[in-house]
Amino acid sequence: MKKIEAVILREHLEAVRGKLERHGLRGGITLVEVRYSEKSKSSLPMERRVFEKSPQRIKLELIVEDAKVENVVNIILRQAQPQSQEEGGQIVVLEVNEILRI
Asked: Is the CATH number of domain 2-95 3.60.21.10?
């Protein structure tokens, strides 16, 4: 199993979710609003301005079977393609060793 985390522009969310649903992934998606900045050196007042200027982003988190990872990543890449490099996000694929239900 793998956990996929993708930070995308909010405006691409419905396209990504719709395409994932059409490919059989109907549930198990966690959505988190995020503030995203690639600036590594900034003071707190500067960070606030950077975040206010940056487009709104959302982080999708989902756990999928190994066989579905490539398909899911490709869907996200196609549906959430930004207009410019500055608007881009990221996709991370992590190994899941154990899932505990609570």
From this structure: no
